[in-house]
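Hey team,

Filing this mostly as a record. A colleague (T.K.) asked me to run one chain through the structure pipeline before their review meeting, and I want the input and output archived in the tracker in case anyone asks later how it was produced. No errors, nothing strange. Just documentation.

Input sequence:
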Amino acid sequence: MPAKRNTPLNVLVLAVDTLRADRMSCYGHSRLTTPHIDRLASQGALFERAYAPNVPTTPAYASMLTGMDVMSTRMVALQPNEPLPAHLRTMPELLRERGYVSACIGFSGEQQEARYRGFDQYHDFRSWMSWEQRPGDKAEKLNDVALPLLDEFHRSGQPWLLFLRHMDPHAPYLPPAPFDRLFYSGDETDPKHLQGDRSMQRVFDFAPFAEFFKSWMPPGVTDTEYVKAQYDGAVAYMDACIQRLLTRLEELGIADNTVVLLTGDHGESFLEHDIFFDHHGLYEPTIHVPLIIRAPGVLAGVRVPGYVAHQDMLPTLLDVLGERKLLKEIKADGQSVLPLVRGERATNYAELYLTECTWMRKRGWRTPEWKLIEALEPDFHGFPPVELYNLVDDPGETRNLAEREPQVVAYLRDRMQRWVKRRMRELDRPDPIQQYHIGTEKKIGSVGQARALQARSEAQATRVTP
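Output structure:
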C-alpha cells in the first residue's frame, strides 16, 4: 500500500502513439533505442506483458483514461459512431475533484475534447509531415508546448496531470539528424535490395497504402531495413526529448514528487503478415506495448511478468496516488497493477478479448498459449476468416492452425462469445463492433490526405448511431 504523503503527487503520462515494445532496448531490442527510458524503468517498474487489447488509437486512449474495457467505453473504432458514455468519469475529471489542474497535448478540438474529455487545457503540435517537409521533429514540437506548461503548473502550486501523446513512432518516420542515420549506413536506394527479402517492391505494390508511403519515404528507396531503421531512429530521438522533460522535473525539484507513466496506444507491424508499416492486425507486434511506471517511494527497479492491459492504467494511478476511495467509486473494469509488483497476484488476466476496427473488423481471444482471430467481414488482405496460433511454439504467429485444431478454435470461440454476451447483459447494450462495416475499398493517400482522414475521424466523434 502506498505511503500517505503530505504533498499530492503530480502525474506525467507519456502515452506514445505506435510504440511496439520489442523495439525498445529495455524490452530486449538489440539496438540501444531507449537509453533514457531504460533508466526510467530501472527506477520504477517495467511490465513485460502489457497489452493493447483494442486497437487502434481511439479505443486505446478511451480505456486508459476511464479504466474501462471496450464494451464499457464503446470506443471500438478509430471513427466512433457514438461519444464516450456520459456516465464514465475520466482521469482528469477524477483528479480535478482532488484539486488537480490538467492539460492534454496531442488531442485538440471540440470533438477530441468530447472523446477524451475532462482536461482543463487541450493543445496540439506538428506531428505529420511529408518527405519534402522533413525533418519530423515531432517530440521537440511537443516539448515546445509541454515545457512551458510544466513551469506554469509548478508556479500554480497545485498538483497537476499532464497527458502527452507522443507521435514520433507513428508514420511518417522522419527523425532529424543524426537519428536518421543512427542505425543505418549504406545506400537505401541500391537496386540490389530488390532481389532479396529486403525489397520494398511488395510494400509499394500494396495499393491501399502505396501513395501514403511514397509521400514520406525517400524517392527510390529499395531497402526495407532502411525504413525499420527510421522507426528506430524516431524512437531514439523521442527518447532524448523525453529526457528533456525528465530533466526539467529535476530542475524544478519535483522529480521525487511526480509519477511518470509511459505506455503505447498500440504497436506497429513492419512486414509481419504482409502488414506494412502500419498498426492493423491483432498480431503481437501491434498489441504488445510497453508499460513503465516510476513512482518514488512506491516502485523501485522491478520487472513484472504478469499480464496487464490499458484499462488497468487509471486504477493503477489512483492506487499509486493513495486514492482508494475514488478507486472503489469508479468500479473500473481494469485493476491496479500494484498487487503484481508486491507479489500478491501473479497476473491481472488469464484471457484477453481483442478487437480492431480501422482497416479490418476483427475480434479475438488471447490466452498465454493460444490466440484466436475471427474476421467479422472480409478484409483487403484476403486473410482467412479464422486464424489460430500457438503462441508458445510459434511466437511469430506464422502457422495458422485453425483447420488442424478445430476443437481449440471451438473452445476459444465459445469463451469469447460467452464473455461478450455476459458484458452485453451487464451493460444492457449491444456489442459495439457489430455496428460497423468497413469493406475492402478503403485506402490512405498522401500525408496530407492522411491528416485529413484523421480530421474526419475527429469530426465524427459525437455522431450517434441510430
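Quick notes for T.K.: The CA atoms of residues 81 and 464 lie 5 Å apart. The radius of gyration is 21 Å.
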